[in-house]
Design a protein that fits this description.
Elements: H1 3-34, E1 53-59, H2 68-81, E2 85-91, H3 98-108, E3 115-119, H4 122-129, H5 137-142, H6 144-148, H7 152-157, E4 167-168, E5 171-180, H8 181-186, H9 195-207, E6 211-214, H10 221-238, H11 247-261, H12 274-282, E7 286-292, H13 302-306, E8 308-311, E9 325-329, E10 332-336, H14 338-341, H15 347-357, H16 360-370, E11 373-374, H17 386-396, E12 400-402, H18 411-425, H19 431-446
Helix pairs in contact: 2-16, 10-11, 18-19
């Protein structure tokens, strides 16, 4: 056979083999694409169904709290997006001191809530030291977007003494002297911007049958804080009883009695609670009340709301307060329990819920509801009342912003300080005796 014929035959054989190979490849591809998936096959990107999870959240967004509905709505929003998560919204009112007992009992009995919205400082020290909650530093650092949503000042305010953040904040607060300007104008009184004006107002209003200063003796949290801050200044107030008894604290108790003798408090101050005192002011029956920013959401009378302003509590003569010192900050936040963190089924859902409840959008809604200072960076609360605007101005112009006294002394110590209010104003005990009893309790708690 000629070489040319042989070459042609070889090329035909190779070409035929090439076509056969292409045909097999095409058949193979067509077969793969046309073969239906069996029912047991799962796409590579499909996620396994999420397990049903139940989370219990304990907070003080209950009772008549002005942000109660906004808080529940935020929880509902989370469950609508995460139908596998059931949330038990366990709430009590902050005006009911029993919530502290409940939290301590739950923490000590192995019944910790998955997320706990509670105070930072001395109130949480016991369960923090016992390892019942986890530091959140690493979780914050692992999610830069979540962390950057907080105001740096807010995060720093909830950092505990060991350098860790155990509770992420939602909204902050301020406390101050809420004053019904109309009552003062109608009675030709100047606003109580100093101690003499305060005494004049108390004496005048009391004689006319108007409650000058609504406040209870038992739940006297705000009275104690402001009278001590007014007398002892920021340093003396924040030292608590750790360095002994500040003589200015005696002046603070003595000033309570001075105003009591002028008729400052409601006649039933010995039996009412914070809620009733707030009602007296909200119904226009009292000219002043020492309260927190959250209280404004509970007052419904437009005549009261429209005529309310907020002032710092005036400095008292002989003390070292500036008259511009303020109680406030970010004193509460969400804790994540250690038992939940260690539970593989709950951990991710609980962290996701915590992030949702402290997102800028949720924080804004809660702040609008309770008039609090948003813990989120860049969130401005617009359309607020003049009283709220005045309150923010008080904080902005403050010479110091301080945590409440019950953040710097043991709960048992603070109970003794509260009990001392009625004893002092009614003349049953001297301020020095009350403070000595409280100091002994504080020392016993440190042993």
């Amino acid at each position: 056979m000629k070489k040319s014929s042989i070459l042609l035959l070889s090329m035909l054989v190779v070409f035929t083999m090439f076509l056969a190979a292409c045909g097999k490849t095409e058949d193979k591809n067509n077969t793969a694409s046309e073969t239906p998936k069996t029912e047991t096959e799962t796409p590579k990107d499909a996620e396994a169904p999420k397990k049903d999870v139940s989370l219990r959240v304990f907070s003080t967004f209950g009772g008549t709290d002005s942000a109660r509905d906004a808080f529940q709505a935020a929880l509902d929003e989370f469950t609508s997006k995460n139908p596998n998560v059931k949330i038990v919204n366990d709430t009590m009112s902050a005006n009911d001191d029993g919530f502290r007992t409940k939290v301590n009992t739950d923490m000590n009995s192995g019944n910790e809530p998955d997320l706990l919205f509670y105070f930072v400082g001395s109130d949480s020290k016991g369960f923090v030291d016992a390892g019942k909650v986890v530091p959140l530093n690493d979780i914050l650092d692992a999610d830069a977007q979540w962390k950057s949503g907080f105001s740096p000042a807010a995060l720093e305010n909830v950092r505990q003494k060991d350098g860790n953040i155990y509770a992420v904040p939602l909204t902050g607060y301020y406390e101050g002297l809420f004053v019904n300007k109309k009552i003062f104008t109608d009675n030709n009184l100047e606003l109580p911007t100093d101690w003499d004006k305060m005494k004049t107002a108390v004496s005048t209003l009391s004689k006319k049958g108007i409650i000058p200063l609504a406040g209870p003796f038992d739940q006297s949290h705000y009275i104690i804080e402001h009278f001590m801050l007014s007398a002892a200044g920021s340093k003396g107030h924040n030292s608590g009883l750790a360095d002994g008894i500040d003589p200015n604290w005696e002046k603070g108790y003595a000033a309570m009695k001075e105003l009591y003798d002028l008729g400052a408090f409601p006649k039933d101050a010995a039996t009412i609670d914070l809620g009733m005192a707030s009602n007296y002011y909200g119904e226009g029956k009292a000219a002043m009340i020492i309260e927190g920013s959250w209280a404004m959401g509970n007052w419904k009378d437009a005549a009261v709301i429209d005529n309310t302003t907020v002032l710092p509590f005036p400095a008292m003569p002989g003390g070292v307060g500036t008259g511009k010192d303020v109680i406030g900050g970010f004193g509460s936040g969400f804790y994540l329990s250690k038992s939940t963190f260690d539970n593989a089924d709950k951990k991710d859902a609980a962290i996701a819920l915590m992030k949702h409840m402290t997102s800028p959008a949720t924080i804004e809604k809660i702040a609008i509801a309770n008039g609090g200072t948003p813990a989120a960076a860049g969130v401005e609360i617009k359309g607020t009342t003049q009283a709220a605007t005045d309150g923010f101005a008080v904080v902005a112009n403050a010479t110091s912003v301080n945590n409440p006294i019950d953040n710097v002394v043991a709960p048992e110590t603070f109970s003794a300080l509260r009990a001392g209010v009625q004893a002092v104003v009614t003349g049953k005990k001297a301020p020095a005796d009350v403070l000595k009893e409280a100091k002994d309790i504080e020392d016993a708690n440190k042993k």
